[in-house]
Amino acid sequence: MTTKTLETRQTKPRRPWRRAAFGHAVLVSFLLVCGLGAGPCGYRRLDAGGSLPPNIRTLAVQPFTNQTLRYRVEQRLTQAVAEEILRRRLPVTLISDLERADAVLSGDIKSVTTGQALVDNRGTVRLFQIAIRSGVTLRDQTRNQVLFDHPSLEFRGEYEFSSDPRSFFNEEDAAVDRLARDFARSVVTTMLERF
User: Fold this and answer.
1) Which of 26, 112, 165, 192 is the most exposed place for a label (fewest CB within 10 A)?
2) Per-residue pLDDT tens digits for 181-192
């Protein structure tokens, strides 16, 4: 009886690959169902579809005011915001005449702070953290109403400097341009989330 049982076990071929294939098929099916059910959750890329109200055809970006002691920081950030609006290809025309514009975007740089973010083993600072606090207002001049007003927008970023961060904004440096572009992207994205 024991030899017959052993023979029977040996004659039945084992098929472990079927069990593994079945497990993989179940796992893939489960992931597909979860992926289809999750969907995009209502999120969209703002640089692909965000826009201003349809009655705004012309927009003027007023030079930002500077409450900090950083020299010319407002000029670089204002220019970067205007360039970001152009980059997004919004259906508006940027004009310089504030009186003729359908809407005016104004801003106020309230503070710019820097701090060390990464120090190497020799004690040299390799990365600095910059925080910019600003206020931004978008006013519809045709209807005399405020479309967007955020008195304390916060922007933070980490950047590599070639020298002391206190003189950072005085330099004509690629890192300053990168900072201004990142700041502008953050401001315009926050503004367009409103519409």
Assistant:
1) 26
2) 999 999 999 999
